[in-house]
Amino acid sequence: MSKLKVISEKSLTNNSRVVGLLAQLEKINTESTESDTTRYVTSKILHLAQSQEKTRREMTAKGSTGMEVLLSTLENTKDLQTILNILSILVELVSGGGGRRASFLVSKGGSQILLQLLVNASKESPPHEELMVQIHSILAKIGPKDKKFGVKARINGTLNLTLNLVKQNLQNQRLVLPCLQLLRVYSANSVNSVSLGKNGVVELMFKIIGPFSKKNSSLIKVALDTLAALLKSKTNARRAVDRGYVQVLLTIYVDWHRHDNRHRNMLIRKGILQSLKSVTNIKLGRKAFTDANGMKILYNTSQECLAVRTLDPLVNTSSLIMRKCFPKNRLPLPTIKSSFHFQLPVIPVTGPVAQLYSLPAEVDDVVDESDDNDDIDLEAENETENEDDLDQNFKNDDIETDINKLKPQQEPGRTIEELKMYEHLFPELIDDFQDYDLISKEPKPFVFEGKVHGPIIVPTAGEEASGNSGNLRKGLAVKENGSPKGDKKATLVDPAKEDIKDNDRTLQQQLGDQNRTTSSVHGLNNDIVKALDRITLQNIPSQTTPGFSTGMKKDHGLPLTVLTCTKACPHLATCGNVLFEGRTVQLGKLCCTGVETEDDEDSESNSSVEQASVEVPDGPTLHDPDLYIEVVKNTKSVPEYSEVAYPDYFGHIPPPFKEPILERPYGVQRTKIAQDIERLIHQSDIIDRVVYDLDNPNYVIPEEGDILKFNSKFESGNLRKVIQIRKNEYDLILNSDINSNHYHQWFYFEVSGMRPGVAYRFNIINCEKSNSQFNYGMQPLMYSVQEALNARPWWIRMGTDICYYKNHFSRSSAAAGGQKGKSYYTITFTVNFPHKDDVCYFAYHYPYTYSTLQMHLQKLESAHNPQQIYFRKDVLCETLSGNSCPLVTITAMPESNYYEHICQFRNRPYVFLSARVHPGETNASWVMKGTLEYLMSNSPTAQSLRESYIFKIVPMLNPDGVINGNHRCSLSGEDLNRQWQSPNPDLHPTIYHAKGLLQYLAAVKRLPLVYCDYHGHSRKKNVFMYGCSIKETVWHTNDNATSCDVVEDTGYRTLPKILSHIAPAFCMSSCSFVVEKSKESTARVVVWREIGVQRSYTMESTLCGCDQGKYKGLQIGTRELEEMGAKFCVGLLRLKRLTSPLEYNMPSSLLDFENDLIESSCKVTSPTTYVLDEDEPRFLEEVDYSAESNDELDIELVENAGDYEPSAQEEVLSDSELSRTYLP
């Protein structure tokens, strides 16, 4: 004993008695000393553990061996009291510490030792009760922390030991309670759950739970939790259904609901609902639930709970169960394929379009629930033992891990001879500017000779520049009517006549006319749109010739006249005198009856439409209603639209007020869901009347005054069918993308016949995304014609009680192309219209049509200074339906035709921009509009930018999709941004030729410095970029060794970092530079990997708003989007200064001044906190139906999240903050 005393005294010098006691215990173990000493030491340690938190901390501290000593003793001792002492110590240790101490015990092998102890203790007959209570209590606490616990328990054979213990001791609550807690842990493993179910555990649970009782409430609560876990197994759920337990659960629930007046047993009531939720995961369970009148029972009980806020968990869980059990219906459509059909020139052999064409006609009628039709349970066979590892692998599965695939490898793809077809689209590389009226003349003209002294002239593909320049194109703007085959027809325009055409007014003159007419619109009568008749635009002077689609001339001097309707002529003919391709151009519903104009001596015209021209206070506008009508004539749509939507005709200016992100009212989603459930419970209250239908050409618009009228038959419109549900509630169904049977999200439609002061509810019932910013403050957009006529022509955010949730409509997995998500989602919003009998338009986001783009390009072309700006508008190719895809070239004209100036002109680096590959992402076009306007402006920095770069811009990569109201696809039914690897010239002409332009530049050694594709993002806030980096991609795979071996220029980060400083809406922390396998065929990755452009980006703009910076808390508008486009240009100029400091000496003060001109100075710093790939919670079922769980973030944190730290040499900017990188 002297040795023990010495050790004890040494320990005391460390001010820790427990360390000494543990050392004694360890010594005892090695010497196999008598059990009395072991009992004494363990009792002393127990006393310290019970009385001192310090002791508990020391024993579970990192590096402590105390836990090993205790477990070793527990494993080796046979003394019952010692075992009980150690178990009591372990109970004390794991009872606190927030789960960390339980994990610590697991890490030391505690699970296996305790399970073996349980097996050994069960061999005694009868088992020692206190020992069993302690073992089960500890195992119930540490089991959830052990990933392999279910497997260990099964291997050790403890499942039935615990189960039999419960069966034999049902009246012994003290023993049964920890046993039930451990059964609940066992049941988390599906194999164990099935095994226990076969041994009667489900029936056993129903012996414990029962009607309302004030006794044994804690036991009933644990039994219900265990039952809910067990019923997640389909085998156990089927067993419960077969024995009629669904009816029993409902009866018990009603009994507890009625008697628990003080709501003290809410957890028991919730436990019953959780069991119902589990059993209704299978079809048999749902059927049993509905047969037992479960829908009505839960609906009534949940409505009674609404008054008590603390009962919200019951309401939310009831709502979830009812939504799940709501009978699945197919959409009320003849087919989920698009209403419009376009015959493709070539049918793909594989892919979604090929699958669509091969589908049997009846496939749309199948509601597929095969996931729970199986008669056998496969969980035991398919059990994955390490589910956490599986989840981790799944998280990283999309990241490209093959270094060879990650390394950019320039692939020519096409031969030099093939690429020569693009030579005519790069005249800036060969033009000598001899015949241009340039700003200054040098004494020595530029002459091509065999050898050029001075700057290197980069030759065009396949041939050197030579003295033979006879085929050089002359004229400032060469219009090309190109085709995919490369046929060219050039229309040469005299530069002298280009700036001011015959009968063409300048922007200033037009603005003056608008000023004179604006004041006449203020006295408009509120009954302006009462008659709802069509107005046909007639007497429109047209100087276009058949087939002349570009370079359109128009007489602005002749006013646009409108055929005015009167009350005496309520039915106006819908065909005008002017036909173009067999169609008329009409505006939507509007009656001019009752328009009273104020006397204005300056007003030159009484034309109603001219009165509708509204002054834009910010200066000259690119919008011209007359020109828009002319452009529309050449726009080819599949449905052959003849109407023009008023917002596109009037134009849009940003409203002069801020629009904050909408705060979501408490309980709004469950209220909406309850109203949906009422449809099933009270079916007699539902009108169910079709009031709009694209699929029925003989459909007659109802004439009743209290029914809203709908329309979507105009460019970019999308609304397929409308069903009146209740007096002021309508279900709306969107049209699929053409040659597709899904991609429903974009909407744009007209509503008329409304009454003010009435709350109209609109439900768009066939959305497909699993979540939306509509759940986080985004509102739809509304445009009021009456407001526009009152000098307020703007789209505004509108709607209340907005939410987005899964509904009871579904499609078969075959019709969904094998996708997992077979259910549709509802966007619901409520609107109070401000005016009686107005005509209003609703849209997913600010519309920007193809015709609007063509109008803007023509206005930019006609207004620019040809001596200063080199501007060309070519046709890249024709789309599938015959629309031209514009290609814009912008740079500065050379200072003179002196050879040094020509050399400088030709050697400017290229910047290649594109946008709107996805039609529903209209915000991309507004950003592009900001870029184009800035590039064409007269500011000093814009001129410096033009002198620094040559811009090649494809502002709309998917004209057909935009025109026909698609959300994501072109007429080929495919996502064009997944076709860049191998575009088909017949099916994807715009991608094929856009890639061809880039391949041509690569072939002539003129790789763009920057490529950027503008997009919109529906589930994230702010504006951000996706780029490409080998190192960051490898780093995200957690292969740190490989990451360290990769050497990479981090210049790809420069532009995003610049933008994070100068653009208020831009957020660096949302940027990502990871290359994913699923994005390998996108423009960003292909241009980086195949073309070799290091700075290849996708710039994503939010559809909702910002949660950081100057615009925090505000929804984004066109002003902010256009500003982003302009800031992008300023960023390019700063990039030039950073990358070429010697040749670029523009003072930084000028850049700062320009930044202030775009928007007042705003210091934006990138947040340095780690942000997940989604800035909102994933919309899982629990969130989906509960409505209030936005706070309950259920997000999988990325393992090993940390900063990617470039080396000091890699850091380009001198910012203090370094952005994080994330999976997009």
UniProtKB/TrEMBL annotation:
The active site is at 1100 (proton donor/acceptor). Its cofactor is Zn(2+). It comes from the Eukaryota. It is found in: Cytoplasm, Cytosol; Mitochondrion; Nucleus. InterPro entries: ARM-like (IPR011989), ARM-type_fold (IPR016024), CBPC1/4 (IPR033852), Cytosolic_carboxypeptidase (IPR050821), Pepdidase_M14_N (IPR040626), Peptidase_M14 (IPR000834). The keyword Nucleus applies. Keywords: Carboxypeptidase, Cytoplasm, Hydrolase, Metal-binding, Metalloprotease, Mitochondrion, Nucleus, Protease, Zinc. Residues 597-620, 1204-1224 are annotated as: Disordered. One of its GO terms (cellular component) is nucleus. Residues 846-1136 form the Peptidase M14 domain. Pfam families: Pepdidase_M14_N, Peptidase_M14, TPR_CCP1_N. Its EC number is 3.4.17.24. Metallocarboxypeptidase that mediates protein deglutamylation of tubulin and non-tubulin target proteins. Catalyzes the removal of polyglutamate side chains present on the gamma-carboxyl group of glutamate residues within the C-terminal tail of alpha- and beta-tubulin. Specifically cleaves tubulin long-side-chains, while it is not able to remove the branching point glutamate. Also catalyzes the removal of polyglutamate residues from the carboxy-terminus of alpha-tubulin as well as non-tubulin proteins such as MYLK. Belongs to the peptidase M14 family. Interacts with MYLK. This is Cytosolic carboxypeptidase 1. The gene is AGTPBP1.
